[in-house]
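Run log, item B.
One chain of 473 residues. Sequence copied directly from the ordering sheet:
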Amino acid sequence: MDEQANPRRWMILISVGIFTLMATLDGSIVNIALPVISKNLNIEMNMAEWVVSIYLVTICIFLLMFGKIADSIGKIKVFKIGSVMFIIGSIVCGLSNNLVMLLVGRVVQATGASMAMATNNGIITETFPLRERGYALGYIGSFVSIGAIAGPGIGGLILGHFHWSYIFWINIPIGLVALILGYVNLPKSEKTNPVKFDKTGFAAYFVTLLLFFGAIFIGQSVGFTNPYIIVAFIAAIIFFGVFLTIEKKVANPMIELRIFRNHNFTLGLVAGFFIFVTNFFFNVISPFYLENALGIAASTAGYILMAFPLVQVVVAPISGKISAKVNPIVLTIVGLVVIELAQLGYLAFNLKTEIWFILLCIGLNGLGNGLFQAPNNTMIMSSVETKDLGIAGGLNALSRNLGMIIGVSVSTTVLFLSMSKFYGKSVTTYIEGRPDIFIDGMRVTMSFAVVICLIAIVMSVVRLIKSGRSSNE
């Protein structure tokens, strides 16, 4: 096994990891800049949210497609093309002086990010020998988790010293370094497995997501009782049914539905999905709470929000080592309970909340995620056969990104609906001079996060009970 190990495998991990971190980071780093972008481009808050949403929706749409294409023409080739596209998209975003140009840049960025995310697990799986594979995949999982959560904190630090466009400009030098590392270290040739692409399945999948998320975000402005919005939701459900029917019949489906028969894999995937939804509730709301409601500068807000990734970075590797000695399901449950305590803390936030308490709750959330993410990712990837590692990695990435976009869409929807109810008329942005309306809406919104996290806890307890029964039999 040692003779077959790629001598450059750790440099490959670094180059793949850097792009994975940036691609995931850009799904959340814009959150902290939304109040600034909203004012600078003279757009309402719900329109500014599209800058985050369109990035995540694009990734969800193309992630599985590029995974299949990569199997046919080569993972490394797709990864390199995606890296270049991501840098080009960052340049367009940095040059943007209106919402349309910024959204176009985000789509280009996200297309490149989806190409990188669709291939990172596959590249690592093929590069590392079996004895090191889980360790290496764990690092990629850590890059993803930290990137998804650290965005608001890092973005706040950048905003404290530079224009909001530097949130995108910073990708260019880092991306070029990663590209050079990849060019030098990634193999020049690789095995491919040309298969017929499931075009019909992809079309149904594409229309399903477009209708569903389009209905959610447009519904925030026009109302969810609008006949067109209702028709869009019904059509999304119909197309999803068509998609599932196609996937059961085609020889090379976009999603291998059989893998969901593995209950350990499915429960781990769904629990991870719920936690990303939960995390993005506060990720979306926190910039407006800290900057608008409390009047804290963006840079200071960034320092406060950095408590989450800093705690998680310290705890995650420790959690990974502990999970090898104790039942990892028990560790995920402990992590989930700590996350739930943090959500309950967020629920108590108001206009007089002390900074130390805000830091405590954010730090608790980082601690819980550090305890949860590493063992949960390990269980997901280790619960499938070696031949299904690529599929499992792709679905794991999709569930994370779906969790982020559902978190963004549901949290903003609940926030605006509840604010509208308290204000007595339609609200689609932060109301200057009425922080009390925002606080009331935030409290309702975070109540949903508490319930979602509780569902994840119950699911994990069920998984623990089932694993105990199977080990006794």
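Observations after the first pass:
- Residues 198-254 form one domain.
- The chain has a mean pLDDT of 83.
Flagged for discussion on Thursday.
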